[in-house]
Amino acid sequence: MPFEVQSDGPIPAPVMIVGEAPGEEEIRTGKPFMGQSGAELNKMLGEAGIARGQCFVTNVCRERPPRNDITVFIPQVKKNITSDCVLVGGKMVKPPVARGIDLLIKEIAAVKPNIIITLGNTPLWALTGNEGIRKWRGSMLYYNDVKLIPTYHPAAVLRQWDLRAITVQDLRRAARFRGGAPYPHPNWQFTRERTYKQVIGTLDKLLTRIHSGERLRLSFDLETRAGHIACAGISWDRSSALCIPFMRISKPEGYWSAPEETSIVLQLYYLLTHPNALVVGQNLLYDCQYTWRHWRFVPNVFQDTMVSEHSLFSAQPKALAFLASKYCAFYEYWKEDK
Fold first, then answer.
1. Spatial separation of the C-alpha atoms in residues 248 and 230, rounded to whole Å
2. Counting beta carbons within 10 angstroms of the beta carbon of residue 336, is it exposed (0 to 12), middle (13 to 18) or buried (19 or more)?
3. Is CB count within 10 Å lower at the N or C end of the chain?
4. In contact, 171 and 48? CB cutoff 8 Å
5. Euclidean distance between CA atoms 132 and 228, whole angstroms
6. 214 and 151 housed in the same domain
7. Which element (helix H / strand E) includes 154?
8. Cis peptide before 95 (omega within 30 of 0)
9. Do both 162 and 228 map to the same domain?
10. Last residue of a domain, which of 136, 153, 176?
11. Residue 238 belongs to what H/E stretch?
12. Measuring CA to CA, which residue among 162, 168, 121, 155 is closest to residue 36?
């Protein structure tokens, strides 16, 4: 059997770090993350306030894949699946990965970590079933009842240096939650399909606050379809939001009657154009084109988060999911939710 690299670190440990597979230096030393990737990992952990000596460090696969290519052990196309492959987590994998995942599960039970940091796509998939580290990094997830935060592998950071800053930020998030308490999950108050009376009532309450002199920060967003406004979303605090539908596939004539829709749009006009309404949104230039074209008004824009982010960090992504992963107190990738 090829040489397998052993895990390293105290048992139990508050933090468990899971990589993909060993490289050349790990095979030579017999310990995980001992080469350039390991040195960079140690630096980033230090910047995040995590001492590597307090971490249990391991890999999904304990055997070095040929050319450091994990897809040799996790075939990506049907023709590469061989008779020794077994089904694990919806994928056909070769024995080194199957053995590694079985051992990893046993290690988690023994180490009893408060939080697991997964580095790269393979451990993200192995422990959560999710794939796409660019999408899921920074998400506050769980493996069973153990907190888990995925981020980039240090080898990816060394190949693409602009990934480093957000990787350190992900590690800082892990550092904040390495205690035994669960994530503080917000008590969301989201309403999607209210009655006309409820929609008007909510807008009236917001208008009353504004007319009383309160400067109210309102997050605003539109979803569009075929050149028309499908729905409008408004949020007035961290946990409360209202989605007002205007289109529905099952009602081609429109979600509301003509008088109801006219009344709702008029209330939106009074609310969103009021001087005390501080309208915030992502790429609001797009939304404002639609409000002007269909509703003949432009909101009182206070801040466009996409423009702000690009002005401050021009080399970083400015998509909404990336911004949410940086700034939200509770974050889990959501863009593909149905």
1. 8
2. exposed
3. C
4. yes
5. 32
6. no
7. helix 154-159
8. no
9. no
10. 176
11. none
12. 155
Burial of 70 (0-12, 13-18, 19+ CB in 10 A): buried
Q: What is the CATH number of the domain that holds 37?
A: 3.40.470.10
Amino acid at 97: V
pLDDT single digits (tens) 168-178: 999 999 999 99
For the ranges 86-90, 187-191, 274-278, the one whose mean pLDDT is highest = 274-278
Residue 52 DSSP one-character state = G
Query: What are 78's strand-pairing partners?
Result: none
Q: Is beta strand 55-59 parallel, antiparallel or unpaired with respect to 15-19?
A: parallel
Q: In what order do the strands lie in the sheet with 240-245?
A: 189-191, 240-245, 228-235, 216-225, 277-281, 301-304
Q: Cα-flanking dihedrals φ and ψ of residue 268, to 5°?
A: -65, -40
**Quick one: which of 322, 329, 289, 330 has its CA closest to 305?**
322
Q: Is the pLDDT of residue 338 over 70?
A: no
Amino acid at 298: V
Q: Which residue has the tokens 């052990």?
A: 73
- Report which residue type is found at 220: F
Tokens describing residue 247: 């289109």
Q: What pLDDT shows up at residue 85?
A: 94
Alpha-carbon distances, residue 92 vs 88, 169, 336 (angstroms): 6, 33, 25
Label residues 34-69 b or e (16+ Cβ within 10 Å = b): bbebbebbbebbebbebebeebbbbbbbbbbbeeee
Query: Same domain for 151 and 229?
Result: no
The letter for the amino acid at 99 is R
| 3-state class (DSSP) for residue 169 | helix
Picking from 35, 4, 11, the residue whose alpha carbon sits closest to that of residue 100 is 4
275 domain-assigned: yes
Q: pLDDT exceeding 70 applies to what percent of the chain?
A: 98
Q: In this structure, what are the phi and psi dihedrals at residue 77, rounded to the nearest 5 degrees? A: -130, 155
Cβ(187)–Cβ(240) below 8 Å: no
Which three-class secondary structure state does DSSP give residue 316?
coil
Closest to 112 (Cα-Cα) out of 56, 172, 45, 171? 56
Residue type, 155: A
Task: Tell me, yes or no, whether 2 lies in a domain.
Answer: no
